[in-house]
Amino acid sequence: MLKPYLNIIRISPIVAVNKGGMEKHILQITNIQRSIGHRVWLLFSQGESIGTDDIKFLKNKNYYQSPIALFFRITFYLCILFSRKKLKNIELKGIDILHIHGDWIDFFLGYLLTFRFSPRIMVASIHGDVVKRGSL
């Protein structure tokens, strides 16, 4: 028998109310899923939480504007991978979906998190001008 809700981990480096399309999409989909009864944990490093299950890593780091942005992105994912205290309530629940937002490097680093959370499904949402930047 299927349970009536899903346990979802959504990972996005940035959560901001008045930013671009990716941020608005993350806010909307998270709020909709929560409103219909799904349990959604939003893991992020920039911006403000939108719910009680949100967990912020790398506080006060505006790493997308930094010359060493890749270093901070790797650090963000490593913090999630090796964090015990912040994520202790998530691991007890059994994750159905791991949803990664960003570009190709977020997808690659997010894939490493499947070894930690063992989700039934991993979803990657690629946002922005990935082709223009030469990522694909």
Query: How is the largest sheet built, in terms of strand order?
Result: 5-3-1-6-7
Main beta-sheet strand count, sense and barrel state: 5 strands, parallel
Q: How far apart lie the N and C ends?
A: 41 Å
Gross morphology is globular
The unreliable regions are: 130-136
Sheet-strand content, in percent, reads 15-25%
Q: Please compute the radius of gyration using only Cα atoms.
A: 14 Å
Give, in order, the helices and strands: EEHEEEHHEHHE
Number of separate strands = 7
Average pLDDT score: 82
The computed structural class is alpha/beta
**Counting H and I runs of at least 4 residues, what is the number of helices?**
5
Helix content: 25-40%
Describe what you observe in this structure.
- With 136 residues, the protein is of the alpha/beta class.
- The chain has five helices and seven strands; from the N terminus they run ββαβββααβααβ.
- It has helices at residues 21-35, 69-82, 88-91, 104-112, 114-117, and strands at residues 7-11, 14-15, 39-44, 46-47, 55-56, 97-102, 121-126.
- The strands form two sheets. Strands 5-3-1-6-7 form a five-stranded parallel beta sheet, sandwiched between helices. Strands 2-4 form a two-stranded parallel ribbon.
- Helix 2 packs parallel to helix 4.
- Residues 130-136 have low confidence and may be disordered.
Concise account of the structure shown:
By secondary structure, the protein is of the alpha/beta class. Helix content is 34%, strand content 21%.
How would you describe this structure in keywords?
disordered C terminus; globular; 7 strands; alpha/beta; 136 residues; 5-stranded parallel beta sheet
